[in-house]
Design brief:
Blueprint lengths: L3 E8 L9 E8 L4 E5 L6 H9 L6 E6 L2 E2 L10 E4 L11 H11 L4 H14 L15 H13 L5 E5 L7 H18 L2 E6 L2 H7 L2 E6 L2 E6 L1 H6 L4 H6 L6 E9 L4 E5 L2 E4 L2 H6 L10 E6 L4 E3 L8 E12 L4 E6 L10 H7 L9 E5 L10 E6 L5 E3 L10
Parallel strand pairs: 3-8, 3-9, 6-7, 7-8
Antiparallel strand pairs: 1-2, 1-4, 4-5, 9-10, 11-12, 11-14, 12-13, 14-20, 15-19, 16-17, 16-19, 17-18
Helix pairs in contact: 2-3, 2-4
The structure holds adenosine-5'-diphosphate (ADP) and magnesium ion.
Length: about 400
């Protein structure tokens, strides 16, 4: 069992001008499951490989159990790692595959058998010990790969996109499997994924990276409820938070946001809860609201804040209706490259404001509607820095 601490960890590959990981500070507590998440190329694998000792550290200090290990060889760090492209020995049984690392390190046959049995129980592989990998499902093979890594009882367990080669259904299943195994073993774990849903469902804590720079490290709930900046706001949650241009007007006691042609009064409770807004009066701010916090006003008397919108498109999913709306103002790009890809390179901003309505909603395509917004759940960002306006 161990803590892992990255203090100012930086990596600049030779020949590169910019660091791939830039001054990263994260402390992982004993037994914690931390997920590193961010778009492809943001430095997740680089960060993990530095912890494993597979990549040299250009700057900063890495501690395992409070001991500085920058210059400790990978084998001496007592760390196990599972990669995206794990390979099992096809001619060996599950038991032999799992026991292999122990055989290499010269343990006795009895001790190996005991540890294989014990590890197989945790991973629920007991029934499959005599099978060969070819006769296992994808999920079982993944568990064998984990077993082979965990059998050495490492202090720290690292996983780099271990589910990306599995099909969507199995991926969802394995998420909860891996999280449950980690909890049973209580082993300090760092898990890397580019998939924010995976990160949010698996991690005790989620560390969001962009361009090698830490954006926010928090519990999934905090990330969702209180994103620190526009990037995290847009990256976490699906469909993504709507971010839109607005202008803050009013005086200390009563504030409104001007959204295109519409002027929307903010309830007193919202103004009271956000004193920091006062210094932005008269200025442009970016407002944000999640699709989940928008309602068909005809079905909801609870939320007095309204935005008028025209329905562009409806996606009826049975349990919900995703409405694509024009609220008369441009949406703002959060800087998430995956979203940019979706919206096409010609348009750098998302095209429509999305709202998740109840399946009982009767709004129609082309209709002008009133949308109710849960104003307590509005987010505000400084357009210059992208940082959340809080407090
Ligand atoms: P991620 O795992 O988040 O997709 P990586 O850590 O693999 O990101 O890469 C981060 C950045 O570092 C990328 O810009 C990538 O091109 C660069 N990079 C990764 N490995 C090397 C390397 N061996 N040499 C030079 N640049 C690299
Ligand atoms: Mg990677």
């Amino acid at each position: 069992m161990a803590t892992v601490e990255l203090k100012g960890i930086t990596k600049t590959y030779s020949g590169n001008d910019v660091p791939s990981v830039d001054d990263l500070n994260v402390r992982i507590e004993d037994g914690e499951f931390v997920v590193l998440v961010g778009p492809s190329g943001c430095g997740k694998s680089t960060a993990l490989r530095m912890v494993a000792g597979l990549e040299s550290i250009s700057g900063g200090d890495l501690f395992i159990d409070e001991e500085r290990v920058n210059d400790v060889a990978p084998q001496q760090r007592d760390i196990a790692m599972v990669f995206q492209n794990y390979a099992l020995y096809p001619h060996m049984t599950v038991a032999k595959n799992m026991g292999y690392p122990l055989k290499v390190s010269g343990l006795s046959k009895d001790e190996i058998a005991r540890r294989v049995k014990e590890t197989a129980e945790v991973l629920q592989l007991d029934e499959f010990l005599d099978r060969k990998p070819g006769n296992l499902s994808g999920g079982q093979r993944q568990r064998v790969a984990m077993g082979r890594a965990l059998i050495r009882q490492p202090k720290v367990f690292l996983m780099d996109e271990p589910l990306s080669n599995l099909d969507a259904k199995l991926r969802v299943y394995m998420r909860s499997e891996i999280a449950a195994i980690q909890e049973r073993l209580g082993i300090t774990t760092i898990y890397v994924t580019h998939d924010q849903v995976e990160a949010m469902t698996m991690g005790d804590r989620v560390v969001v990276l962009k361009d090698g720079v830490l954006q926010q490290a928090d519990t999934p709930k905090e990330l969702y409820d209180h994103p620190a900046n526009m990037f995290v706001a847009g990256f976490i949650g699906s469909p993504a938070m709507n971010l839109f241009e607005s202008r803050l007007e009013g005086d200390g006691a009563s504030l409104r946001i001007v959204v295109g042609e519409q002027s929307v009064g903010l309830p007193d409770s919202v103004v009271a809860a956000r004193p920091a807004l006062a210094s932005h009066v008269g200025q442009r701010i970016i407002a944000g609201v999640r699709p989940d916090d928008c309602y068909d006003a005809k079905l909801s008397s609870e939320y007095p804040v309204r935005l008028n919108a025209r329905v562009l498109l409806l996606e009826s999913l049975g349990s919900e209706i995703v409405a694509h709306l024009d609220v008369g103002v441009g949406l703002v790009d959060s800087g998430d490259p995956d979203l940019q890809e979706l919206s096409g390179d010609a348009a750098d901003a998302p095209t429509a404001f999305l709202a998740r309505f109840s399946p009982h909603s009767r709004v129609e395509k082309g209709e002008d509607i009133a949308m109710a917004v849960d104003a307590d759940k509005l987010h505000f960002f400084d357009p210059a820095s992208g940082l959340a306006i809080r407090g």
